[in-house]
Amino acid sequence: MAETFVCTTCGAIGQVKRQTPGSILIELVLWIAFIVPGVIYSLWRMSARRRACAVCGSTAIVPANSPRGRQITEEYAEDEEEPNA
Fold first, then answer.
1. In which band, very low, low, confident or very high, does the pLDDT at 34 lie, cut at 50, 70 and 90?
2. b/e map of 54-85 (b: 16 or more CB within 10 Å)?
3. Is the pTM of the predicted complex or chain greater than 0.70?
């Protein structure tokens, strides 16, 4: 079962996406034109992957069942309950 996360930036609750920096197009060009830089670029892209919020793309996420995750969930729930004046 996948773990649920809370975004500290936008408050979204749910699954995260894997975010890979760089460009697949640049990687392909480097592999075709220059094999060694292509390998280095590919290794860098793979090692720099990170989890990110599926809504806003922020990497500032915490597990929903952590103390900080529960606090953020409560804060955003309170914000939604307040009447618009």
1. confident
2. eeeeeeebbebeeeebeebbeebeeeeeeeee
3. no
Report residue 48 as tokens: 């720099």
Amino acid (one-letter) located at 73: T
Domain count, the chain: 1
Banded model confidence at residue 84, pLDDT cuts 50, 70, 90: low
The domain in which residue 65 lies consists of 5-81
Axis crossing angle, helix 35-47 with helix 24-33, rounded to the nearest 10:
150
Q: Residue 29 pLDDT > 90, yes or no?
A: yes
| Cα 71 from Cα 58, distance rounded (Å) | 18
51: left (phi over 0), alpha (psi -120 to 50) or beta: beta
